[in-house]
Structures are given as structure tokens and as C-alpha cells.
Amino acid sequence: IEWEPWGEYQDVLLDRSSEGIARVAIDRPTKRNAFRPRTVMELCDAFTRIRDDQRLGVVLFTGVGPADDGGYAFCAGGDQSVRGDGGYLDEEGLPRLNVLDLQRIIRSLPKVVIALVAGYAIGGGQVLHLLCDLSLAAENAVFGQTGPKVGSFDGGFGAGYLARVVGQRKAREIWFLCRQYGAEEALKMGLINEIVPLDGLEAEGVRWAREVLQHSPTAIRCLKAAFNAETDGLAGLQELAGQATHLFYRTDEAQEGRNAFLQKRRPDFSGSGWLP
Ligand code: 1HA
User: Fold this and answer.
1) Spatial separation of the C-alpha atoms in residues 51 and 196, rounded to whole Å
2) Which end of the chain is more exposed for a tag (fewer CB within 10 A), N or C?
3) Ligand 1 pocket: which of 32, 79, 175 to mutate (most atoms <8 Å of CB)?
4) Where are the beta strands (DSSP E) in 149-275?
5) Predicted-assembly ipTM surpassing the 0.90 threshold
6) How many CA atoms lie within 13 A of 47 on its CB side?
7) Is 276 helix (H, G, I), strand (E, B) or coil?
8) What is the signed CA dihedral for 78, 80, 83, 86, rounded to 10 degrees?
9) Which residue(s) pair with 117 in the sheet?
10) Which atom of ligand 1 is nearest to the CA of 67?
């Protein structure tokens, strides 16, 4: 695959390919790719640009590695060294939990996001991997939560959606005991889709992406919204309904409503029928 660098960031690498695949990588390997507010802002920007490029259908989300000490990480969560008393401090000293914005952007992106996990996916990094639609893990992948150890918790997707994915028992174990789980255990509990040799991780991600890209974009985006609708309450229904509105706008029936308004006449929906 040929990557074209796309965007100038400090903490993030963004590439795209003419095949319809984008690659987003957190680039703080010396911190095990822990995120600070800037990292999250750059990730939000990258995912928003991907959303608006209609040639792109699949995103590979990963972390730069190995670090100089040989360590790999997808993401080790919030950068504890910039954690102030009320959140993670940005460059103006404002306390932020802006990874929650990023979670929602990934969740509602009408494209397929595939996590490629090499090394640690811990804390808020584990939650980010969880929110990806699919997850491929290298043999060295390690998953876990640390919140109760470091004085934090993610009671949103991090707890509730985790329980939907791995079950209530396992989710409570993960959060209450703060253990680390290897790739085999993660596969067994349904946290990941497949284990891949480390040196073949990206190639396998590209293979999965190419398979997705052969299929109907509308079917895929409606399915993603439908899966979200089942778990995300009214926000999930809003997404699914938005897809329906999108499709409805393309019909003669919806366009007659718009045209009649603009032409200051009564709409004529007689061509539509009341189908079974
Ligand atoms: O819970 C939330 C949120 C909840 C609601 C709303 C927003 C939230 C936002 C964030 C979070 C969280 O993410 S809380 C959880 C934060 N993360 C952690 O507690 C994980 C901390 N890191 C570790 O446990 C370990 O580093 C590791 C298991 C990932 C890797 O261990 P390893 O391979 O032994 O490496 P280590 O030597 O520990 O780390 C390498 C370097 O990376 C160290 O820097 P150095 O001492 O060499 O200068 C280490 O400090 C740094 N590093 C690793 N993780 C973090 C980090 N620095 C800052 N923050 C980190 N999270």
C-alpha cells in the first residue's frame, strides 16, 4: 500500500491512500503513546478530516512504535504528567477530559475504524481501542484498566460498553482488579477480532480494510449506526435516523416537499403511494 502523508501534527501521524484507507497513529512512543489534550485535539481533527473525505471508507488507528527502549504501545491512556487537579492540562493550563469528544467522533464516524494494537492498550487507550469497530492485536498486545489504581474511571463507554462487549462479570473484573490481559485472553473474552504476528499487523489491517471497501458504503454506514443505536440510547437512534433522513432526501417524495415550499405551492405527494 502507498501512503500519502496528510496533515501536520505534533503528536499524531495521519496518512491516506488512494485505495480509500486512512491511517492515524499516536506518535508519543516515549510515553507509551499516552495522550495529552493536544494529542486528543489533533486526533479529533484527523478523524474529522477523514469523515469529510468521501473517498475514504476505512481508518486504521494505531500507535507509533517501538520506542527507543523497545517498548510497544497502542496507547497508555491519559498522560499522568500533565494531569492537574481537575483534568489533563492543555497548553493554556485549562483542565480537560477531551478524550470523551474523541470517543464520540470515532463512535459516530460513518466509516469503519480498525484498531491495530501492538503492545499496551491501557486505561483511556483501552477504551479508544474498544470504540473502534474492529480490533486486530499483535501477539504482544496487553489490555487493561488502571483507573482505580491511579484515581480515575471511565463510567461511560469505558464501563457500560465494555460490559456489552465482554459481559458484566468480565467488565467488573477488568475494572475492579486492574489486571493486565494478553492477546489470547483478549480474544477469548471477545475484546479483539484476531491475533496477528507483530510484523504483519498493518498488512493484515490493510487486508481487512480492502475487504470492507468492496462492499456497499450505504449498507456499512447504516449497519454501524444500527449497532450504535442498540447501545447508545437516543444519541444512537439519532445516528440511525440521520442515515434514514439522508436516504429519504434522495427520493422524489422528499424533493417534492422541498420544491413545493420553494415554489410556494401545495406539495403533491400522490406519486408516492402508501406501500405495505
Ligand atoms: O481514565 C481516564 C479518563 C476517564 C474519564 C475521562 C477521561 C479520561 C482520560 C484518561 C483516562 C486514563 O487514561 S486513566 C489511566 C492512565 N494510564 C495509566 O494509568 C497507565 C500508566 N502506564 C503504565 O501503567 C505503564 O507505563 C504501562 C503498563 C503502559 C507500560 O509499562 P512499561 O512497558 O513497563 O513502561 P514504563 O517504563 O512504565 O513507561 C515508559 C515511559 O512511558 C515512562 O516514562 P519515563 O519514566 O521513562 O520517563 C512512563 O512514565 C511513560 N508513561 C507510560 N504511560 C504513561 C506514561 N507517562 C504518562 N502517562 C501515562 N499514562
Assistant:
1) 28
2) C
3) 32
4) 180-182, 194-196
5) yes
6) 28
7) coil
8) 70
9) 137
10) 40
Tracing cell 483534568 back to the chain, one arrives at 87
Spell out the per-residue pLDDT of the chain, length 276, in tens. Answer: 999 999 899 999 999 999 999 999 999 999 999 999 999 999 999 999 999 999 999 999 999 999 999 999 999 999 999 999 999 999 999 999 999 999 999 999 999 999 999 999 999 999 999 999 999 999 999 999 999 999 999 999 999 999 999 999 999 999 999 999 999 999 999 999 999 999 999 999 999 999 999 999 999 999 999 999 999 999 999 999 999 999 999 999 999 999 999 999 999 999 999 999
Overall residue count recorded for the chain in this entry: 276
* Spacing, Cα 87 to ligand 1 middle (Å): 15
Q: Which three cell numbers stand for residue 48?
A: 474529522
- The alpha carbon of 164 and the centre of ligand 1 are apart by a number of angstroms equal to 25
Distance of CA 193 from the midpoint of ligand 1 (Å): 25
Reported as half-sphere exposure (CB side, CA atoms, 13 A), residue 152 has a value of 21
pTM of the complete model: 0.98
**Cα-to-centroid distance, 223 and ligand 1 (Å):** 34
- Residue that is written with C-alpha cell 493536544 in the block: 38
